């Protein structure tokens, strides 16, 4: 199999850094990522390092994954950084095991990026992207959720988004390289696995190129999403007045733009953005009066035809 072609976004990101850190779990996708980056590092002029997080969730199997990654990087002469994190002990209240593992993992990526002036490459594939889009749809996502996994985001790049899971396994074989198997991927206890094992195969029986079709959908929707986001940013700026936002101007916006503007206002004020909060705030904007409490101790109110965010101490702060 040929080395995957990098898209324009990935190439542009690589042109701005001297170092790339490959996140390697030991599975086929991440091993294919490491092998790909190692094959192209001279062509694109970056140094390559690797990192591995042992989440300590599968006892000896987790330690075996770590040993495999250490041996692989030693054989390829690639510097490796390992973070051992006992996730069961680090999980916060109201945080799932998956959320905790992700927080620890991406925090580690950020540390390394800052230390080496690097970007971290993760091994997300077209298969992961299709699963993510389906999960987002099941949750009732807005347009942004249908955009799927971005190729470049906040110090992260995903060079293998054009590859399916089958492609990465074939790439490993073509390099004569093995990989480890995560036994949790066999369980249907997780929503993603149920979609992977039950839903995707059925969809691929209808369209064998389903994952590629989803990738095209994501690309097309991303253009629309970016256009609306830019329109919302411009609209938010035009509606700003001293101390808040002009409610009459906000109410005159198209619904899709108004909802984006509302999300921006909530986000900038540290309020968690969800469908309920957006609906409640847009409702008072349309009504031109009233208020709502989208989050404890944070209130969105309309006074003197202006939209404000205030705290429980009744102190206004500009939004």
Structural commentary:
The chain has two domains: 210 residues, Rossmann fold (3-Layer(aba) Sandwich), CATH 3.40.50; 76 residues, Chorismate Mutase Domain, subunit A. 53% of the residues lie in helices and 16% in strands. With 319 residues, the chain is of the alpha/beta class. Strands 3-2-1-4-6-5 form a six-stranded mixed sheet, sandwiched between helices. Strands 7, 8, 9, 10, 11 and 12 form a six-stranded antiparallel sheet that branches. The C terminus is likely disordered.
Q: What's a concise summary of this model?
A:
This protein is an alpha/beta fold. The protein has helices at 8-14, 28-44, 60-76, 87-90, 97-116, 126-138, 143-146, 165-174, 191-206, 210-239, 247-251, 255-268, 275-287, and strands at residues 19-23, 47-54, 80-84, 118-121, 152-153, 156-157, 240-241, 244-246, 291-295, 298-303, 306-311, 316-317. It has two domains: 8-217, 3-Layer(aba) Sandwich (Rossmann fold), CATH 3.40.50.620; 242-317, Chorismate Mutase Domain, subunit A (Up-down Bundle).
């Amino acid at each position: 199999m040929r080395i995957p072609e990098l898209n324009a976004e990935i190439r542009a990101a690589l042109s701005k850094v001297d170092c790339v850190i490959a996140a390697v779990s030991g599975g086929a996708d991440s091993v294919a990522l490491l092998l790909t980056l190692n094959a192209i590092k001279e062509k694109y002029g970056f140094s390559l390092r690797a990192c591995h997080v042992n989440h300590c969730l599968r006892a000896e199997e987790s330690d075996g994954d770590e040993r495999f990654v250490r041996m692989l990087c030693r054989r390829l002469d690639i510097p490796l950084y390992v973070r051992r994190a006992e996730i069961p002990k680090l999980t916060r209240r109201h945080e799932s095991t998956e959320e905790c593992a992700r927080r620890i993992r991406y925090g580690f990526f950020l540390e390394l990026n800052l230390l080496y002036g690097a970007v971290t490459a993760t091994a997300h594939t077209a298969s992961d992207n299709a699963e993510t889009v389906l999960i987002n749809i099941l949750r009732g996502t807005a347009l942004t959720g249908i955009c799927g996994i971005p190729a470049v985001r906040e110090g992260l790049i995903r060079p293998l988004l054009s590859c399916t899971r089958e492609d990465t396994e074939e790439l490993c074989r073509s390099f004569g390289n093995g990989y480890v198997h995560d036994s949790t991927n066999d369980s249907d206890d997780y929503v993603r696995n149920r979609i992977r094992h039950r839903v995707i195969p059925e969809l691929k029986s209808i369209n064998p190129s389903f994952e590629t079709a989803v990738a095209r959908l994501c690309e097309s929707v991303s253009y629309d999403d970016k256009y609306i986001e830019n329109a919302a940013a411009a609209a938010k700026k035009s509606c700003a007045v001293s101390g808040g936002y002009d409610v009459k101007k906000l109410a005159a916006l198209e619904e899709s733009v108004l909802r984006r503007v509302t999300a921006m206002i909530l986000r900038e004020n540290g309020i968690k953005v969800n469908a309920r909060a957006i609906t409640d705030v847009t409702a008072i904007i349309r009504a031109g009066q009233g208020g709502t409490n989208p989050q404890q101790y944070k209130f969105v109110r309309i006074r003197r035809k202006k939209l404000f965010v205030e705290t429980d101490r009744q102190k206004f702060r500009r939004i």
